[in-house]
Amino acid sequence: MATAQVASRVWWRRPAVVVGAAGGLFAFVFIIRAVEIVDVEAADSLLAAPIALVAVAFGPYGGAAAGVLAAAVFAGAEAADTADLTWDEVAVRVAGFSALGVFVGAVAAALERARARFTGAFDHAPHGILLTDGDGRVSAANAALAQLLARPVDSLIGITVASLSDPLEIGQDEPQWEALQSGAILSYTVERRLLDARGHPVPVSMSVARMPTDDGIPVIVHLVDLRAQRQSEEHAAYLTDHDPLTGLFNRRRFEEELRRHLLGVHRHGPAGAVLLLDLDHFKYINDTLGHAIGDVVLRHVADRLAAVLRAGDVLARLGGDEFAILLPEAQTSEELESTANEILATVAGMHIALPTDPAEAVTAVHATASIGAALVPAFADADRLLTAADLAMYEAKDAGPGHVRIHSGDSAHAEHIRTGFAWGERIRRALAERRFELHLQPIVALAGAHEPQYEVLLRLRDGDRLWLPADFLRHAERLGLMVTIDRYVVEQAVRLLAGLPRHRRPRLEVNLSSASLAESDLSDWVADVLQRHGVLSRHLIFEITETMAITNLPLAATTVRRLRARGIGFALDDFGVGVSSFYYLRELPFDLLKIDGEFVRDLPTNRANQLIVRAMIDTAHGLGKTAVAEYVESSEVADILRLLGCDYGQGLFFGPAAPAAQVLADE
């Protein structure tokens, strides 16, 4: 330790040593003055030594006491010599000696405090510090450096910094070192690898600074451990290319590998195939067993696929339950279909044990998958190839669980691809040219007065043709355009509200996709839009369809909570259609439950639906929610809903969807 090293040099400051030495000096001065070996002035000068010794050891008060004692020694020696002593002489000596003692003591105390601060900071610094002498050898090192290198402090003293460095890096900073020694620069910082006691490299940031003194040019070196930073950087680099759940390549890295393969295809001719694998009914696993179990299933599937594929094959998780495989050596459709069926058999043969309580009925699950595949043609484009495989996969899904479909240029897939790309261009052009139109359909209170409320329905104007969402949304989802469309609709809805007088602003329900719910900045973006247009959040309700697949429910729940905290309402659409209704009710905080029209249309003639709708209404009210019935198309249906206690109705009986400007002008 540096403190111990310094303390070993100041042994003479120990009280017993100081008192003994000062006493001996006082006695020596008394004797030589009393026997007139020296005169008065010389004695005064000699008395400064013990005064300074005591002042350095005991501070200003000790120096003052030593000064008084020195005056007494002077007076005693003077009296023994001549007996000619006046009180004025004694007073002058007391004042002078005491002032000298106080001054020397104060200076010594200040120096000691500075030394203590330095050694304390040196010893307890969180990073490694070492000092070198004029020859560049380590003269002091702190505990942090010893811990960093797993070496005792004593083993570091006397060696050069170069001897601690990785041999491959010795001399790399020699130009900076020479510039430092010559005074051309005062400091520099480099990154180096030092070797610990076991010879393992330790990356550090090394800051070197010179400290000029009269006896050489010592250097202070400050070393910061970079291992945690390096691990963080490596982890970040890993996540750039890998899926954090399964450890497989992610979409970005898979597309990069695919494009690299296609460069070889362009030079040497077509070879290889792309497979997209999607687990069957994975949403049901998530909804019934929970997302933690869903993650277990995904990891098992990933491990099994990695085990059965060849070394040159590329496997990735694209997101959700979708995996992608690049088979670089596939040549024919027959070979590709055989490989795909082997993969499906592997997945279907998995017995995935679940980490559940032994008392639970479900202790394992089995998974099946569907595969869409496409052979790599000459001069292939990565995006088109993935689209072809994607369309083939959806065709496999339509055929039922556990099927394989391979894209063929002569099949209906070619038309599907052309249609998909045409719709992509049409949607992007409509967004750029603002040709998406908002239509409004009224939502009416079934009893009593109500605040005007409408659902916002989207239409795409293409010349004289008005396209409905069923025509274009599936293409938007496949092309990743849903977030852009959602934000377009939200901003247009808020603009619509901002253009109305404050007392005439209705509440608008806007549909949100699962892709938007996965956007972590959605809440802040919506708040910014509302603030820019001067619209209160209470006028906005976001509608989520019960049947849509929310791939990241925890993130969606966080987004919903943040938006509701800002005063925005939420509605669950198509309530009662799928198995997720009550699961979503538990996980996501809704304000309105919209009963699906399949249960509402034939209420007058279907007793079973009457009971089901009553149960849904009671559920909504029991949870403190508002019940809204969709597809109310007659007064008879509306009357039954009133009797059942439903709060609101929506459908052709109350009014069809119409252009927003027309609806609001009629208000």
Radius of gyration, taken over Cα atoms and rounded to an integer in Å: 43 Å
The count of β-strands is 22
CATH fold annotation of the largest domain: TIM Barrel
- Percent range for β-strand residues: 15-25%
What does it look like?
With 667 residues, the protein is α/β, with parallel strands linked by helices. It has four domains: 2-123, no CATH class; 125-231, 2-Layer Sandwich (Beta-Lactamase); 247-410, Reverse transcriptase/Diguanylate cyclase domain (Alpha-Beta Plaits), CATH 3.30.70; 430-665, TIM Barrel. The protein is built from 23 helices and 22 strands. The strands form four sheets. The chain has an eight-stranded mixed barrel with strand order 13-14-16-17-18-19-20-21, surrounded by four helices. Helix 20 (581-587) links the parallel strand 18 (569-575) and strand 19. Helix 2 crosses helix 3 and helix 16 (482-498) runs parallel beside helix 18 (522-533). The longest helix has 42 residues, at 40-81. It starts with a helix and ends with a helix. The model is unreliable at 1-12 (pLDDT under 50).
